[in-house]
Amino acid sequence: MQLITEKGREGRGLSLLPPCDVERAEPAQADCRKIPLGMPSVSETEISRHYSALARRTHGVNDGFYPLGSCTMKYNPKIDEEAAALSGFTQIHPLQPAETAQGCMEVLYLAEKYLCEITGMSAMTFQPAAGAHGEFTGLLLIKAWHHSRGDMKRTKIIVPDSAHGTNPASAAMAGLTVVNVPSAPDGSVDLEALREAVGEDTAGLMLTNPNTVGMFDENILEITKIVHEAGGLNYYDGANLNAIMGIARPGDMGFDVVHLNLHKTFATPHGGGGPGSGPVGCSEALAPFLPGARVQKKEDGSYGWTGAEQTIGSVKAFYGNFLVVVRALTYILTLGREGIVEAARNAVLNANYLRTKLADTYPMAYDGLCMHEFVVSLQSWKEKYGVTALDVAKALLDHGIHPPTMYFPLIVHEALMFEPTETESRETLDEAAAALLEIARLAQTDPEALHASPRTTPIGRPDEVTAARHPVVRG
Ligand SMILES: *Cc1c(COP(=O)(O)O)cnc(C)c1O
User: Fold this and answer.
1) 137, 215, 237, 261: which to mutate for ligand 1, most atoms within 8 A of CB?
2) Among the ranges given (1-10, 355-364, 366-375, 389-398), the one the predictor scored with the smallest mean pLDDT
3) pLDDT tens digits along 88-136
4) Is the CB–ligand 1 distance for residue 409 below 6 Å?
5) Does residue 163 have its Cβ closer than 6 Å to ligand 1?
């Protein structure tokens, strides 16, 4: 395929507009570009065809089942897009006087209130632009809290080996040293290893529950207690809250800080590179350190800005990605208290439905009921049939299904992680199970057929490392 810049010819473009009848103003030479802009000269038809052709070569949620685990984009109702497009939300300036921005401030106020209720936190900032940015911010809050008490020796953060890769990376960026604790064979935190890891230098623990293998850690109260008793704080990675929202709250599990990914669980589409939002909620004790301006409801019912006294400073300009918050609030208001709970229950039900349909054929990494996702380990297939997780993922493409997350978490060999999400119908799950069972039959009878897949996509099997490191973006 040609690039858009290679298409078209000099002078071609939109010819609907009459020639300009205003005298041309030449900018000063010093302000001019030295290198030509390189804009494509294409007609309207050419440009629409180009982007339609690109869209046909990709697979999105509008094309079929998309069971990517852990980092899944969940439900993005169209009504949330409409709310975020309202001119009252888009035609506004962050430096506008507060009395002219009351509606937008109410959005931030209500979103904070509802998300604090859902997470069991006391206060929240919407500044962080994504999940990892939220982790970084939350860890700075933990650090600031220890420092405010004159406790400077707490420099270590405990991260289980099943954690999302951003956890240790954010901890390092926040200037903390990562201490890894291994998981027990059932995927939960190894309590003995945790007891050994904590001490006077423990700043805190970073955890997600349900964990990254989709299991609810039943020792969670014990885990957060061990850390608190050692003087540390507990950080909850709430990037994928959809299994527990409205049902269980990180605050009640003993967590002091939580980040959410509004661009996963609360309605903003993700995958296209942004914008996202990773708000950070915290307990009363950490609220004085929150970054940025927050909305306060005054006695007369109007809204004003307030800042935390011992703030860690801003982590982003103004109020974060505001329109993502508009979508999240719309989502929460349209679902309501019952709808949020139902979404969570369906996420868990769908994952267990698919897991049960596959469990006799696909080796599950962990036994028992899962939460919103489950992990399969194809190590034994690799040894027996020479069929890998990558082969199964590629074969799914020929069935019109996006592959699940592959080779994550790292503690599971030949991992495939499925997260169907709450919005898929029983028929879609049945079709996916049928496709996966057909692929399993091929793995046992004709593994070569799987090595040759995918056969129906524009690109078959790129060299994944080279494709990532040295992308050639023309086909
Ligand atoms: C996606 C994800 C993150 C990181 O979020 P970004 O918005 O991509 O920075 C962190 N933790 C978990 C568990 C995630 O799934």
Assistant:
1) 261
2) 1-10
3) 999 999 999 999 999 999 999 999 999 999 999 999 999 999 999 999 9
4) no
5) no
Tell me the C-alpha distance between 373 and 213, whole Å: 7
Residue 65 CA to residue 69 CA, distance in Å, equals 12
- Dump pLDDT digits (tens) for 44-89: 899 999 999 998 888 888 889 999 988 777 788 899 999 999 999 9
In whole angstroms, what is the distance from residue 135 CA to residue 315 CA?
A: 12
Residue 207 beta carbon below 6 angstroms from any ligand 1 atom: no
Ligand 1 neighbour 70 (Cβ under 6 A): yes
Ranges of CATH 3.40.640.10 domains, the chain: 79-334
User: The pTM is what?
Assistant: 0.90
Q: How far is the CA of 132 from the centre of ligand 1 (A)?
A: 6
Burial of 57 (0-12, 13-18, 19+ CB in 10 A): exposed
Q: Which fold has domain 79-334?
A: Aspartate Aminotransferase; domain 2 (3.40.640)
| Run of H or E including 471 | none
Contact criterion met (CB below 8 Å) for 364 and 351: no
